Amino acid sequence: MSTAWKFGGKKSSNDTTNNPIFGTTLSSWSRQQKIAMFAGFAILGLLLAVSACSKQSAKPALVGVSSPAKTSTAPAVAAVPAAATTVASLPAKKLLRKRPANVTYSDAYYGVSFLYPRKAVLTSGDLTSSDKEQTQLAVMGDAPMNFVQPGGVAVATVALPADSYPGTDFAAAFFNVNVNRSVSEQECSHFAFVDTRNADGEPVDAEKVKIGATDMDMTSSFSASAVKQAETEYYHSYANGACYEYVLGLGTEGFATEGGIQHVKRDEVFAKLEKILATVKVKVNPAEPEQAGQAAATGMAGGK
Length: 304
Known about the structure:
Strand content: 25-35%
Shape: rod-shaped
Number of helices: 7
Distance between the termini: 155 Å
Oligomer: single chain
Structural class: alpha+beta
Strand order of the largest sheet: 3-4-5-9-8-7-6
CATH class of the largest domain: Alpha Beta
CATH topology of the largest domain: Protein Transport Mog1p, Chain A
CATH architecture of the largest domain: 3-Layer(aba) Sandwich
């Protein structure tokens, strides 16, 4: 039993100790494994480090590329609703309609109409004492009708404002419309009062003039005193079986030489009155008296 154990133990000892190739190979392999293992760990650590650096460097690059795109597109998208909101929130501007400088007067019975300045004072029919005071016509007295036959009717009077020419001796200026159905067409071309301002004091014949598309006869008159002066122009035309008379008048006070007050320029005043005259229209075959009564307010409404 002991021999066998020794043989066996000896054999095992000899096999292990006496096999130099196997021991050398095993020992050498262990070192290579160790080297390979360390090398593998080193390479793996290097790869992990490189991978970590790559990920860290890639993230800022991606942020750097995507960030401008978001910055550039976001305001463009938000600008559309902002602009729409601004436009929608703006209040609508109110359109201010400018009132015309002139208004229309129309008389249905006599068929006469004209334009006159909005700031002027319109009076329809015969003037009362209060009307004269309001229109400043009292300073020059009543401008008499200039028909050769009685029966004239005052239709309308337009008076310019008293302060139309400040700093001058201007007192009043007016435009009258009168109608006389008792005057024939031939008589309409004549006047009861004629101009006598020529050098020898002889009457001056009426002048043929054309106002707009209407042929008219015209004369003028002038009167003066120490405190006032009055100058008047009369125009006649015939239509609808009646004589239509248009009166342009200017009144001044007698204090033009006091306190630096200047004489009003008569040409400017009459030019303004003649603009009213130029707009006169006479409708052929006007309304009958009963129809005119129903439309009596038309003339005054046109002047508002």
